[in-house]
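Appendix B, Record 12. Input sequence as logged:
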Amino acid sequence: MNKVAIVGAGISGAVIARLLAEEGIESVVFDKRSHIAGNCHSERDPQTNVMLHVYGPHIFHTDDKE
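Logged structural output:
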């Protein structure tokens, strides 16, 4: 069986890997960071237990009025 190589474990890479897995297609995801979710990654602060945006808040732009 062939495997699909996915470069980047951000939103797109993670979603594509999941969809492929649901179809029975194996993939290998490569990322230079030690975590998934790319710039949307968040971590829980060990002292306060509050979720923190590691890379700051992000805005997703769209032209959809709704």
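The longest helix spans residues 11-22.
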